[in-house]
Amino acid sequence: MAKKDAPPRWDRRMQQRLARGEAAALGELYDRFASLVHGLAHTVLGDERAADGITRDVFAHVWEHPDAYDPKQGPLRSWVATLTHRLAVQRLRATETAALAQAGRGTTEELERRVRHASVAARADYIVQSMPVPLRAALELAYFQRRDYRQTAVDLGVTEDEARRRLRLGLQLLSTAHDAGAAAPGAPPGYGGAV
Amino acid sequence: MNEAGRLEAYDEHETDGEKDYEERQHEEKEYEEKEHDGQEPYDGPGEGKDDKTADDGPGGPGDGTPPTTPSPDPDRPPLIPLPRASVEDGGRPLPTPADLGDPAPRPAPLVLEHRVLKALLGAWALAACSPEETAAVEEHLGDCGACADEALRLREAVGLLHQPESLDLDPALRTRVLEGCLERRPPRIPVPGWAAPYDAETARLDALLQDFGDAEWHAPVRLKWFEADKETSRRTTVAGVIAHLLMVDGLVGIGLGLDDPMGDVTADRPTPAARTEAYWRTSHFPPTRSVRAPWREQSHDLVRTVSFTGGTAGRLAISYGDFELPLHDAMLDRAFECWVHAEDIAEAVDYPYTPPSPHHLHDMIDLAARMLPTALAVRRRTGLASPGPGRHLVPAGSPGRSLRLEIEGLGGGEWLIPLDSPAALGSADFEVAHVALDGAEFGRLAAGHVSPTEAAAGQVGDREAIRDVLFAAASLSRM
């Protein structure tokens, strides 16, 4: 949790260390972001091996192009997530297109729908992981534990008003996963630092 | 005994809530701040309607007041999908307003203000309202386009929630990914080869700790080692083991000029055991998961620091209080200890854990093999081993009586251990005994986790020499 609120100083320093060619920095980068990267790639691709491949590509990209990250544009974490998303969706589209060409079944629309679906699902996972802990805790109680909002309030030790507010705000954040639309493939929203 | 008893009593203090509570308060505060300068950007176009309904008094449950909002157009199509449960049942249409008049299947709608209803939308979308509130919200959605839009959006968002899959990352992936990167762009500042096992083992242990809950952090662990040829043990918890690693790794940090993680705490002696005991004794509560971050930060700092100073400082002496090791051996020693204690932890919480990669395991065995001649000399000096009748001193640097240590399996190899003096050279010509063990078994022997008399070792030759070497291997262990 503390990791998620890491100051931008860590991001800047990490970038400098990577640029300087410090192998130890690459290890630290992996330790901090590997599960995020692998998880997102797995959500999009639904395959362990493919997610391993994306993980390799993401870290290779960051290691080879540390200057591609601009700390002014937001946290390193969001940037890494966006990069992962882009590479994973590219890979999904490529494999699905190849499968389509080979099998001759299905349509391009279906393909695009699948890609969009995977894309939204990955953004949603990221949003849930990155949202403020009190919001996530409220959603977990109400959705996974099937607690109503009054019980949720008791479990969290907050007022019923506050429980309602958290549930609504949490879902509002989550709903932005749908907002990618036809946006530029290079910058899928939902990985903003604000979330 | 006394010491162990004290720790056991002390372990009963499961007051880890303290830190967690603080963390939570801190998070809540941040969250509040975020909220306040974040001016709720999600209220959408419906916000202005608050005024319209602000004067409506809240209706109490069953007070019989009819809805003050105008009846919706009966011909209007439903604006929203049904609650999640119903949708899963197969998309029944939204009840028509006429149905709402029927008191039997649905409770009478409450009369609530727009503001209140809007605040309920999240709970409604999650099917976490009372039946009365659900009815009131759904009634309202027929009238209020803004709320209906938001309701649809939130209901769709609920569909995005799913149980997170807990994916354990394959620890070998780290090595593969990092190696792939370093081939593409060779590092200007590499991690020295002798620090690589420490880097890999700390990462493996950290991954094991990743999903631990309070139950795991407080699971009892018994640290075991050999002292004066006797099995010794000390009870602690998983968190206590990480605190132990933090304290002992700190010896390497001190040698490199890093801050001592002990802080203000003082130990009687600068040994691994004394430092650990002092830290355990002086922490107000039994160590909790909060030790993970400082331990991990220190391990990252060590790898980083030796990368910069490694080339010149590999021979720098690191003091363990009673003895010293050159930096590169100290880093191997810490890698070995990290693996051994990770196995202790994994066993305590019943998780699987594998031995280090063959290459790293080989380096760790090599360190132990190099330390054996000195350990044998110490045993002779302290009277634990009698200078056998076959002992034969040779000039320093000359081949002497030797034992062939054969380690089987990946990462294994053969070592000739000079038996009579650390100054002698191991020699196949003077081989008097041959011992064969599996690599992981040898690791457990050197860690004091199996007794020398029980270690699964194939043995040929001078029994006295074999016994001495196996006990010397066990004597390498410490807390």
Automatic annotation (TrEMBL), chain A:
Would you say which domain of life the source belongs to? Bacteria
Per the UniProt record, the lineage of the source organism begins with:
Bacteria, Bacillati, Actinomycetota, Actinomycetes, Kitasatosporales
The family database entries (InterPro entries) matched by this protein are listed as: RNA_pol_sigma-70-like, RNA_pol_sigma-70_dom, RNA_pol_sigma70_r2, RNA_pol_sigma_r2, RNA_pol_sigma_r3/r4-like, WH-like_DNA-bd_sf
Q: Which ranges carry the RNA polymerase sigma-70 region domain? A: 29-94
Q: Does the keyword Transcription apply?
A: yes
Pfam families cross-referenced by the UniProt entry: Sigma70_r2
SUPFAM superfamilies, per this entry? Answer: Sigma2 domain of RNA polymerase sigma factors, Sigma3 and sigma4 domains of RNA polymerase sigma factors
Mind telling me what this protein is named? RNA polymerase subunit sigma-70
Sorted keywords for this record are: Sigma factor, Transcription, Transcription regulation
Give the organism the record lists. Answer: Streptomyces dysideae
Biological process GO terms, please?
A: DNA-templated transcription initiation
UniProtKB/TrEMBL annotation, chain B:
Instruction: Write the record's keywords in alphabetical order, separated by commas.
Output: Transcription, Transcription regulation
InterPro entries xrefs: Anti_sigma_zinc_sf (IPR041916), DinB/YfiT-like (IPR034660), Znf_put (IPR027383)
Please note every region of biased composition (Pro residues): 67-81
Composition-biased stretches, type Basic and acidic residues, lie in 1-39, 46-55
Q: What domain of life?
A: Bacteria
Q: Name one Pfam family in it.
A: zf-HC2
Q: Which residues form the Putative zinc-finger domain?
A: 118-148
**Keyword Transcription regulation attached:** yes
Write out the ranges of the annotated region (Disordered): 1-106
The name on file for this protein is: MDMPI N domain containing protein
Species of origin: Streptomyces dysideae
Q: What is the lineage of its organism?
A: Bacteria, Bacillati, Actinomycetota, Actinomycetes, Kitasatosporales
